[in-house]
Specification:
This protein has 18 helices and 14 strands. By secondary structure, it is α/β, with parallel strands linked by helices. Helix 7 (about 135-150) packs parallel to helix 9 (about 185-205). The N and C termini lie close together (about 10 Å). The structure holds 1-deoxynojirimycin (NOJ).
Length: about 450
């Protein structure tokens, strides 16, 4: 791996910061969603979470010892603009200044995500959130405030995290905030998120802020169940509906042809100006990758693979089937551990989008534990990281995929959205009562992996 490769960890504001009503922060849609009984496992919420708002210096020290050279975090929009637009909250700016300066002081490069799902509540209540243009324009305003405040030190910006989740889980299935259920709105929401991305990138480029800006989309790998043309087509289609839907527009200025043909009027259209604005509007591809499924045209036999549907988004619109091998290990989220799927995913991105730099903006796994001792002995996660980073290195060194960074999700256990604190993704254990942090086996393994690559470079 190259010397300037970014090895990092990732978090997001709402999952770790806490301080939900402190220093002028406004409410966001996850604050209210998680205070609605029944929406989150154990009715957990994120009032305190990892209390990172107060303990961030300790968390930076943990990263320093880990040996990462980069940290991906997100800014809480409602900490900066409590109502989503209008008045700026100086205490919010101040917090992120201290966080950014703290990272830079120890040689950690900040990768900043502007939107990791915590939409200011006012925009949802008054303007229908991502269903309306007001939110698109408010995001542009917010992005500019951040570029102005932090752009002298932040050189890597990510506009949006996993728009697929906002569209499908938040506005289609309704298991994420704002909790809407609809068959058509996900396409409208995704459209507006893309336009907001385009507008923010326009502001960034016209303002001549230094550095790079891009988008982070999620995608699991889809392997054809059999080698038939039908199954190969099914797998390709599943990838296009998952990743192409939200990535093609920022490369080519429009949605994938097959979605246009199949969805007709349900898929909004871009005006020629919007299309031109979106085309080429990402300096890099951020990939969040976690798992793999088989895809097939016909429903697979139960006893063959354990047939299942779901986890693919707008499944009825795709008209394909997903399944898995009984031999694949599963994480406590139920996600399949298939490192070669990661390598294939990276190769698919290269084939579709060319040599555009890729950052693996998230990769990791949840491991169940009943107590701290069990949690810190996470051989399963340590092996996961070893195998997945190995698959990535193969994609880079043997297949020539242009990967520039890898961010392990997550630095520490945190608020896992509708699964609350029940799902632990951290390489550092967090005791949510005492706020004590304890590095896990995976923390030391990841540290060794980074060192190994650095030593190889030093010797060469
Ligand atoms: C994707 C999301 O970006 C992150 O917030 C979440 O915690 C992880 N995946 C794990 O589900």
């Amino acid at each position: 791996m190259k010397k300037d490769f970014y090895w990092g960890t990732a978090t997001s504001a709402h999952q770790i910061e806490g301080a939900w009503l402190e220093d002028g922060k406004g409410l966001n849609i996850w604050d209210t969603f998680s205070h609605t009984p029944g929406k989150i496992t154990n009715n957990d919420h994120s009032e305190v979470a990892c209390d990172h708002y107060h303990l961030f210096e300790q968390d930076i020290a943990l990263m320093k010892t880990l040996g990462v050279n980069s940290y991906r975090f997100s800014i809480a929009w409602s900490r900066i603009l409590p109502n989503g637009k209008g008045e700026v909250n100086p205490a919010g700016i101040d917090f992120y200044n201290r966080l950014i300066d703290g990272c830079l002081a120890v040689g950690i490069t900040p990768f900043v995500t502007l939107y990791h799902w915590d939409l200011p509540l006012t925009l949802q209540m008054e303007n229908d959130g991502w269903l309306g243009q007001v939110t698109v324009d408010a995001f542009t305003e917010y992005a500019q405030v951040c570029f102005d405040a932090f752009g002298d030190r932040v050189k890597h910006w990510i506009t949006f995290n996993e728009n697929w989740c906002t569209a499908v889980l938040g506005n289609g299935i309704g298991i994420f905030a704002p909790g809407r259920k609809s068959e058509d709105e996900p396409y409208v929401v995704a459209h507006n998120l893309l336009l907001a991305h385009g507008q923010a990138v326009q502001v960034f480029r016209k303002g001549n802020y230094p550095g790079q800006i891009g988008i982070a989309n999620n995608c699991d790998w889809r392997e054809p169940l059999t080698d038939t043309a039908e199954d190969r087509e099914a797998a390709e289609k599943a990838l296009v509906y998952f990743f192409g839907w939200l990535t093609d527009p920022v490369f080519f200025g429009d949605y994938p042809q097959i979605m246009r043909e199949e969805l007709g009027d349900r898929l909004p259209t871009f005006t020629p100006e919007q299309s031109a604005m979106l085309k080429g509007s990402t300096d890099f591809i951020g990939l969040n990758h976690y798992s793999t499924h088989y895809a097939s045209k016909e429903k697979p036999l139960q006893n063959l693979t354990g047939a299942e549907e779901g986890n693919g988004g707008m499944m009825t619109d795709q008209n394909i089937y997903l399944s898995h091998s009984p031999d694949w290990p599963r994480t406590s989220m139920g996600w399949f551990v298939v490192p070669w799927g990661f390598r294939n995913m990276l190769n698919w991105i290269k084939a579709r989008y060319g040599d555009c730099p890729i950052f693996v903006t998230e990769n990791g796994c949840s491991v169940a534990a009943d107590n701290k001792e069990e949690a810190v002995n996470d051989e399963f996660r340590a092996d996961f990281i070893t195998q997945y980073t190995h698959a990535m290195v193969q994609a880079v060194e043997e297949d020539g995929v242009n990967v520039h960074g890898y961010f392990c999700w997550s630095l520490m256990d945190n608020f896992e959205w509708c699964r609350g604190y029940n799902m632990r993704f951290g390489i550092v254990y967090c005791d949510f009562d005492s706020q004590e942090r304890s590095p896990k086996t995976s923390y030391f393994r990841y540290s060794d992996i980074i060192k190994k690559h650095q030593n190889a470079i030093d010797k060469a």
